[in-house]
Please model this.
Amino acid sequence: MTISMWFLLLLVVATTEGRRGSASSSSTGHHYAYPRGASSSSRFIRLGRLSLGGGTTGNDIDLSTCREASSSLSKILISDRGIEEPAGATTAEPPTMDRGQLLVASATVTTAAPTRKGICRILPFKCGKAKEKQQHLKADPASPVTGASLADKATLAVGATLPLIPEDAWEQLSGDEYDDPQVVDALAQTGLIMATKHDNNGWVDWKESMPSNLDATLDSGEILVFKGSTIRPGYGSEVPWIKSHSIIPMAPAELAGLMMDSSQVKTYNSLSLGRDDVKVMQHPESSGTHATKIVRNVVQLPVSNSKVESVTLLHTRQLENGSHLLISRAIGGSKHFTGVGGKSYILLGVNLFEPTSDANECRMTAINHVYSPGVPLMLAGKVGVKSAKNFVKDIRALCVPVASQ
Model:
């Protein structure tokens, strides 16, 4: 269970006191030793700008669309740097579709705003009615996919990679969108930007600023938690966002591996009835550095003994600087759900594990945006903060040296 899944569990339980690990005595990490007195300059490896590789891209990129309610016809390229305009593209008529070269040859994007800031860039070619746009779509003759359905698939692919999934795309998602590694790459870029850009990220307004002495604060064992609110419409936009920063006594690769291993969930969550790998994506070109799968997790709540089910995409990858990134995203619709109980959704979970000067620990940045139908929104923020802290304490408890017990 990732930190997002732990957040989800406590959000469902809401007012119930969840299981606490043996590290519940303090938020300052008394069960294991930090190098006291170490300066922040010697403690952390300065990583510079994080990157998925393959070049650079700005954090604030225009998402430009037409004013017409009928949407805009766009040509987009999903690359390892996210969703961007193709090289040399102009606002002229779109070039002939080449499905072998681009994941998406055309897409419809509905919005009433002329320009918005965000993670992706969509270059409009034409504004007008759907019939006018349709003439620019050329379906692959060898494929039964029509131009219209291709446009629908393109729209879903774009929505599946944004920090907040559009309302009209949520129920249509099946998880198959992530079969294409380029869509996963774009989602990973979204997660990386959300984890590393606190202010002016275009999607979430965090209520407090980052402390100027972040490294020293984390070095002391503190768990910093922030609450945020969505500044754009989308599915679950009313649900608060939770972000935490902490030091975990595990190497980045080790912690990422633990979170991805479904067989290990019960080692740190006694309420879980088990997590199954529903579908493992095969992306040979990224074998060894990336892993992607869809999992189904079922937990049994205390007192009521009721069950709650979640279906989530998990993706992890190693970054160029030794960091590891873990992305969680709920699968909308009804596919993969068994109906054994209620549903909860990790709308977006991001875990960034960065190396420090100690090879046996990492700095974890965790972002959680979780929606559990039926749980009052007035409780979501409070429970989210508590669950974020408890998750860190429980993971730390797994790493307590025998001599200190």
In short: Residues 12-148 have pLDDT under 50 and may be disordered. The first helix runs from residue 3 to 13.
